[in-house]
Amino acid sequence: MIRMILVQNRQGKSRLSKFYTPYSEEEQVKIKGEIHRLIAPRDQKYQSNFVEFRNYKIVYRRYAGLFFCFCVDANDNELAYLEAIHLFVEVLDSFFGNVCELDLVFNFYKVYAILDEMFLGGHVEETSKQVILSRLEYLERLE
Amino acid sequence: MFERTLESLIKGLRSHRGADEVAFVATIQDEIRHEVRSGDVQVKAEAVLKLTYLQMLGYPPASYASFPILEVMAASQYHIKQVGYLAAAQTFNQDTDVLILATNLVKKDLHSSNPLEVAVAVNGLSRIVTPDLAQHLAPDIIGMMNHSKPSIRKRTILVFHSLIAHYPPALDQGWHRLQEKLDDADPSVVSATVNVVCELGRRYPKKFLALSPQLFGLLTNSTNNWMLIKLVKLFGYLSPHEPRLVRKLLPPIKSIISTTPALSLLYECINSVISGEMLALDDGSGSSDELAESCVDKLAAFLEDEEDRNLKYVALLSLVRILPTHPHLVGRYHEAILGSMEDEDLSIRMRALDLAAGMASRETLRGIVERLMAHLEEPDTKKQKRGTAAEGGAAAALRKALSSGPSVNGPQATTPSSLVSTSYRQEIARRILLMGSSNTYAHIDDFEWYVGDVLLPLLRTQEGVADLVRGQLIDVTLRVRAVRPFAVEAMEKLLGDASWSIGGQGIEQLHALAAAAWICGEYHEHVLNPRIAVDLLLPTGLLPGGAGDGNDDDQSDIRVSTMSVCIHGAVKLFAHWAASLSTGAGSNGSDWDDTRLEEVSNVAALLSERLNLFVDQPHCEVAERAREYAHLFEFVLKDLEGAQRAAAASKPVGEERAKKQAAQSSATPLAPPPTDESTASWGESTALNLTASSSSTSLSSQPRGPKSLHLLSPLFTPAPMGPVAAQAQKKVPPPPHLDLRTSLGGEWSVVMPEPPAKKDKEKATGAEPSSSKLAAPSGSKKTKKSKRDEIDRNISEGKSKASSSSPKLVDDDLEDVPIVRLSLSDLPGLAESSSAGGARNGEAESKSDGSKKRKGTRDREKDLLQEVEEMPPGVAGPDQKDGAASRRKEKASSAKSPPSAATLQQPANGSASKAVGVGTPADVDRGAETPSPTPTMVKKKDGGKAKKKSKRAAAGVMID
What we know:
Subunit structure (chain A): Adaptor protein complex 2 (AP-2) is a heterotetramer composed of two large adaptins (alpha-type subunit APL3 and beta-type subunit APL1), a medium chain (mu-type subunit APM4) and a small adaptin (sigma-type subunit APS2).
Mean pLDDT of chain A: 92
Strand order of the largest sheet of chain A: 2-1-5-4-3
Shape of chain A: globular
Structural class of chain A: alpha+beta
CATH class of chain A: Alpha Beta
Pfam family, one (chain A): Clat_adaptor_s
Membrane topology (chain A): Peripheral membrane protein
CATH architecture of chain A: 2-Layer Sandwich
Subcellular location (chain A): Cell membrane; Membrane, Coated pit
Largest sheet of chain A: 5 strands, antiparallel
Structural class of chain B: mainly alpha
GO cellular component, one term (chain A): AP-2 adaptor complex
Strand content of chain B: under 5%
Order of helices and strands of chain A: EEHEEEHHHEEH
Oligomer: heterodimer
């Protein structure tokens, strides 16, 4: 299952952080720093999208200046989570319309709401883009 | 009051970058502190939202914020409630105290008529759940699995998994519901259920076997790849527990493997086939072999895909798993795997390394190791290219060596990339050593190559593996007779290599020196130039306090062990060289003539001078060795001097002999008069033995030259050490008098004395030993027995109670054993060494601090174990060795204190290590040794001793 989902920019600033396994505040800060240092220097073309981290594995993808990192169990299917990340980004892109970092910054609570529609308790909750988007539209109309 | 919106907070943060940010956040947090107390729930919610945002950036909210968050969660409007739940999910932890208050609130929201509120409560619950919450809300959640809305049902099922994690009985309570949900009408709900079942099935495979029929139906009918992946994974967990399942599963899985276009699903199938032990099925048709082959072929296709590193990585990962059962299939892709070790990606290289290590065999090892060694050199050559001048490999290695050691944490290690590469290189070196030594060096056919082209280059160029290399160098030399001349020559060369400055301070150099000292000392007959080697084995740079010798505990430990090995090795080498000069038996020996006298005396004088440098070392292991040998060298020098004078005057040989006798008799006054029978008889027996050994050598070849040339060699085992099979150890019978049950201790109380009284006592005993206490061991048998029982009880109580209290009790008792101090009272610098926590001398000192004592014991054991590990078990001719060793020891001890002094101390040690619960048999064993061992006997730890101990340790285990 997914242990945490982080979105960081190239400077290591968090744009989203969701811990499905409880960690203390200090530990969270430490983990974010460690993951940033692991991911940021990696080469996009000649290196894989997987990094071993503690007892887990980080599956990450870089979109423009943002790193989308899923920290998952070592025995999980890396390729499937790679697709999950892509799905998440596609949903964000459809929702915000050509999403950029600033969208995530100023609507950070919406990003969490979208995340909650797709992942819950470390599991993939919904994989149909249509279902997710129609649900998000419905939520938007409420406000 | 001025209220900042989230947007203005974000803008503010963007304009206060860098150092200003912290101050800006502090003011914001101050504002929030006021805002959360506002009566307006909107203001409160905005403040909570800002807190959440700051938390994400790494500024955790103060504890005052928990309650307002709860208030916001309780708000009636959905969009405010949502903010509260988000904040709770992001900031609450298991120990957040307000969670107790949340139970009813969450319960109310779960039963809300508004599905949005239910959804947000379920989402929040998944993150804030505690065992208490889980227990209270489990019935509600289980009930809600039948909610009319699919979007609620799927969330409930997922949150049910979080609940089980905190409250396992919930699984049984909701089992039937969960089973029903596998057949839910909504595909998302089924998918969510499969997700949860997959996770739980990993933990409770037996329980979930019951669901196999339903799951199998899903596997054959579903087209949702996300779910299929989970299903296949789940069956991989289940099938090892139900062999019949495999037969049923193979057809659908095979069809997926051959048809699916989704690589993630294909990969999952291959993985499950391997981890689910589905290849072990043997139905006689060979279909499992076929399947294995197709799996490996698919993986190889992944591996050879140069475009996609991800596939390469997962392929290696799976190949590692299939390797143990199908090495021949993996072997086909040997080249591609080795090629992956040069990949840009560290993760890929590591997995390729795993595979390569697994593929090593007698035929392939050399190729793999050579490839890895080349890999190790690569960064050097890269650095070289970047450097200004083109230098040779030796110069690069030298620079590397110079920058090694304590400077590992130097500036070069700060950048992450070089950090990774350093640790990666270490990992490679470690794997090489592991591969080489696996199964007692079974894969190596050319040991000269292994020593000369693998071990030594690793020692010289690679940081962090010197201890391993040192152990293997000694191990290989000891086990493989044929490689000894080569190894000794190589070590001699290493010693003489000025460019590497082996006498220097680095950890690598210390280890190298220790290995060289051991090998050259043990296999002295192969040393080409003993005269020079003796000098190099005891470099003055070995003394601590030089440049680079910081407060590094590791290094000082290694230094101590290296010093003691070097002292022993150098003297041993000299002893045999001197003897061989006289008999003409040495490899480079010609017949003795008096012209060599000067050469010998020069070397002896040098050695004596060097030894005297070590006499004042704080570590008794070092100091005592140096002192013993320095003393013996005084005789040798005196005799040689006499011989030189005699030679000059061309006097008859008889005179020399007389002089030697005189020198020997002059030694006696140095030792105190013998105190008991054993010591009294010792003098004679040694004298007899000395003459006997020299006469035995004189039988083979006429010894010539001064007698003192033969003074030292009988101290060492005449036969070289050889390996003994592990099984052989069992055949060594325990000594008949070895009784581990009876305490040797006397009147020492296990009742804890009053602390001040104890200190006084200690002072008193430390200052002047009273003989009445020495008489303690002769206590009546009955007392001993009862004492022992008492200790045993204490120990067992200590185990059941808090482990820290009882061992301390026993430790404190030990400090009452008065003799402990006495035995080393004539050693200088003891006080310093005890405060430094020196591991070696821990036995002899009574440390004032209980915890320190325990630490000492542990360290000592570590040392002991390490030394035992370094040596292969068993010794050829242990009897002679023991005889020589104890003779030597008794001599030394008779100069210090009566032997009875030690008998008290030893049981103390034995029970101390028992009490801390980490005692090795060796410790206990030493406690039960024959009644006359002396303090030195316990302290002594040279190569031979370590072996003896390991052997005894084995005996101890058997008896226990």
